[in-house]
Structure to design on (113 residues):
């Protein structure tokens, strides 16, 4: 039947490894695909301290990621919005903007002081 690494998940590998065909991906996303016109996107101030303003021109979803790719903030804006970053640690973040109902995305770098 195989070598038992985890009792309920036997493996055919003598070394006690695992079968990559048994590994599944639950959620997969790519940042920065299908940029929309950056002339519509205005992000300021950058560097930011307590907040940054974002003007997109139409309703959008804003997601902020840290440098390891972990989502740290998500907010809906109506063509413009103020996004608080006072709870974030000092460092570099990436702001992904997706226009609602479309596949258009833009990725901007943000520095939080």
């Amino acid at each position: 039947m195989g070598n038992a690494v985890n009792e309920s998940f036997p493996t055919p590998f003598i070394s006690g490894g695992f079968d990559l065909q048994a590994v599944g991906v639950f959620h997969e996303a790519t940042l920065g695909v299908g940029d929309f016109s950056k002339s519509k996107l205005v992000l300021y101030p950058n560097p930011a301290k307590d907040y940054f303003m974002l003007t997109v021109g139409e309703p959008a979803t804003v997601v902020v990621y840290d440098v390891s790719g972990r989502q740290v903030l998500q907010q809906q804006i109506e063509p413009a919005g103020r996004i608080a970053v006072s709870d974030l640690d000092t460092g570099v973040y990436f702001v992904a903007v997706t226009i609602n109902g479309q596949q258009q995305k833009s990725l901007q770098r943000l520095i939080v002081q």
